[in-house]
């Protein structure tokens, strides 16, 4: 068994090889269901809240049977990313003969601990469950200072939900697309609801690059599949779609361990504040805090904006049709079940 196989299918004994099941999953948002699981565990798995089982926040431990179902779901939905280091890139503002310019610069090396990261962005179907379960009314999921702002996070019919939805639901047929039109706060609230969190900038980059990087030189690939851009591998402007695609599309752009669409389709909210350096002659006037976004989107024109190292940013309350998110949680201290026997 190769190392790629290990990290792509770490708990492969749980997987089904049914062709009919694979065909059905290709057109719908993936939802696991274990009818034989205890009722409370079955609900947590269906709502992708299994992180609460393997890493309970109240310290109450689950039994082995419940843990088995949770790890089966994690194997299906998430990829293991081993710890390591990444080289973060950024930019600084300065004045040139052509006016204000952003100059690329290396920010430095950042160490990353091992983690589990979602194989695909949170879908409209996933987020619908959060909305239906009253996620917007749960004060424990939102910072106190923005509670009044949460009332403004409504859809086109003034119901709680993403900006592009209506009557508390996404457009029919878009269930398997990444949810968009959500602010950083909404993405963070959903992540907490599932027992996960948003990845940091270094964690996101590690997930996109580790399996094709040299551990000796820290030389990272530019894209999740290698160093050459291919419009058939990612939903950017060059692909010709010019709109959000299903999480099942563009499979050639997957990382070797099965993480989809880290580049293209939608930008992804990152749990890292965006800071722009500037030379002395440039005055910065930031009125609203900003978070990094990574990966580029369907409307990204320049390939240089959609590499594993490039970054952009938006204000925390921005609710744009080209920004989504995925979640992760730390693997430190967790022990998946032994699959050797």
Q: What distinguishing features does this structure have?
A:
10 strands; globular; alpha+beta; SUMF1/EgtB/PvdO family nonheme iron enzyme; 4-stranded mixed β-sheet; 3-stranded antiparallel β-sheet; single chain; 341 residues
Overall description:
The chain has 341 residues and is of the alpha+beta class. It contains nine helices and ten strands. 39% of the residues are buried.
- Computed structural class: alpha+beta
Ranges where pLDDT stays below 50 over 5 or more residues in a row are 1-25
Number of strand segments: 10
Which geometry do the CA atoms define?
A: globular
Beta strand %? 15-25%
Compute the number of helices. 9
Overall pLDDT level? 87
**Radius of gyration based on Cα positions:** 20 Å
The neighbouring-strand order within the major sheet is 8-7-5-9
The helix content is 10-25%
* SSE order, one letter for each helix or strand: HHHHHEEEEHHHHEEEEEE
Major pleated sheet: 4 strands, mixed
How far the N terminus sits from the C terminus, by CA atoms, comes to 15 Å
